[in-house]
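Let us practice reading a record.
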Amino acid sequence: MKCGSELFSHMKAPYHYHFDAIVTGEDGVGKSTFLEKFVSMDGVAHRKPAEGGYSRICDLKEVELGVTFTETPSAAVKPEAEFAAAAVLFDLTNGPSFVKGIRLVRMLTGIKQKKVIYLIGNKLDLVRERKISTQDGLNTAAQLGCGYFEVSAVTADGLSAFRQRLIRDLLLLRLEILKKGLAKDE
């Protein structure tokens, strides 16, 4: 996979896909740091669009994938809003933020429109203060039907794995949409 800033100046791939995504969670869970670290990873093209989100484009041989991330406070999340993916962050050192993250994921998974949703435990680097176990996070995400990741927005641990899964899931979502469209045309 090749990602780089040259993709902003000229598009070479025959297939171009763009997705909107939100990063949400309670205050203090590290949404801003997560976004800043995620889009500044090595090899990742990024810029701040006029709307205030972050963009990221990857070139996967024949496919260019763009994702505009917008940081959204949990109270402002509307499930009917137009976005393809949601990263719901919680603080691994704060039990109540985990419970609030679960509520938010339930709200997002209960809607009709297909979205890619992740429950993400942040602050993986604070091992001694940790309150939520990996197993609790995995079990909860499995029950909710969403992806689960643990990351450190400070050290960037886990961000690469999340990036790879996000790209894969967004391309699969696009494929599912295309198949539905083709089935309607038949």
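A brief commentary: Confidence is low (pLDDT under 50) at residues 1-11.
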